[in-house]
Amino acid sequence: MLTPIPLRHSGDRVAILLSAVCLVHCLLLPLVVTLLPWLVWLVDNDAVVHRWLLIGIVPVSAVALIRGCARHGQRALLWLGVAAISMLMGAALWESVPEAWESALTFLGSVALSSTHVLNLRALRRWAPAGAAVA
What we know:
Blueprint: H1 7-44, H2 46-72, H3 75-93, H4 99-127
Helix pairs in contact: 2-3, 2-4, 3-4
């Protein structure tokens, strides 16, 4: 049973939280400043970054969804993944796409692919035999 924390102890928790925020800030700020030239490069080379990301996204997603569908049998998830990857590939590889379309395709493809992986994991958990771990 949880007991209420007296007000004097909650100040300790807030102080710990503020100290942790300070620590994260102090550790990350030098890293961010060091990476600024690289971050500027990322902004200037958006298309290159998207293409490199696809090199990782496509095989990892394909393997995860194919293996998942082989286990739980919900083929619709595989097709949702194919549609999502197609949106991402269209946004990254279609040279004459207007910028608004590129942003929309990238956003929708990313949300759709992430959602498909969540649904795949849920289907695997429902399918898994009792006591089996699903990573």
